[in-house]
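Page 42, continued from yesterday. The earlier attempt failed because a stray header line got pasted into the input along with the sequence. Redoing it now with the clean sequence only.
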Amino acid sequence: MVLALTSLDRPEVTYTPNVLKRRCRKTPSVEFHVYNTRFKVSCRAYRGGRRRGRIGEGAKGRRMESPETEMHGGGTGEKVCLITGATSGIGKATAMGLASMGASVVMVGRDRDRGEAALTEIKVKSGNASVDLMLADLSSQEEIHRLADNFKEAYPRLDVLVNNAGLFRSERITTQDGLETTFAVNHLAPFLLTNLLLDVLKASAPSRIVNVSSGDHKSGAIDFDDLQGEMGYKGAKAYSQSKLANVLFTHELARRLEGTGVSANCLHPGAGIRTNFGSGVSGALGFMVRALRPLMKSPEKGAETSIYLASSPEVEGLSGRYFVKKAEASSSAVSHDDGLDRRLWEVSADLTNLPA
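This time it went through. Structure tokens are written below.
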């Protein structure tokens, strides 16, 4: 008897991780959820212990679809793209995809060694030397200001801003600004950075802002009485709140940018993407996230919609929309509350010392 894991969304894949074998109990099966992906744990006789299919292939062994091959609206060499959280996971795959199209890519990360390794890899694999690295800890508003200033000093234009960086924290941690980290990094950081770069985005129009949200926003609520989780912190609640904030921010931003030639859209990258995202998850959930990594989809798959929104002529002029699998989709009903997104904007402006 060994432990077999089967994703209910990807039944063609099963996996038998050695680390979980000894945890098999008498219960026939357990169903659980990890970041919107349902998995079934079953204890059963299993011969061979092999996984059917390879990561990156479908049920019949088909390779995943490659991203778009050209940037929107003209020569690829003219486009400058800034991507946060670009040294690993979906952000790195997004940087690789856009660099492979010939865009000038500016990667943002906080770790120099990992950033320089990713920078070298992307330059070599894409054959594009126009890739740069800027370091910033997005939990610090001072560093976000410095990042915006450094970018504008180095680059005269900005065609695409991809707000990709995000995290999950099981325990409440505050930043040096005294803010809860999940809300600060996942929402306030893109809010502040985007506003600081709006002048160059407007001057570069037509230009695009792409905000990476999550399907988890549908279970989120904005608790204005406890935005910082001081009265009772739960990691999943804080995360879903921050992802709803991404969608609300996108809607209000799009409204404010009408007529400027700057579009703003957001997306769900897909469930069960294999990234470093779960590094801040502890306890039983953290154990499950790490155990399920071999089952998860590749970062390249998770980056497809980001690359599509950054590059495709099909979305030229579209703004304030939510996308899943490179197609427009419906975000939650609460995300369309105009009063809510305007109130969130005002509160966010106050927390980042910006004019409302």
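Notes: DSSP finds nine helices and twelve strands in the chain.
Reminder to self: strip header lines before submitting.
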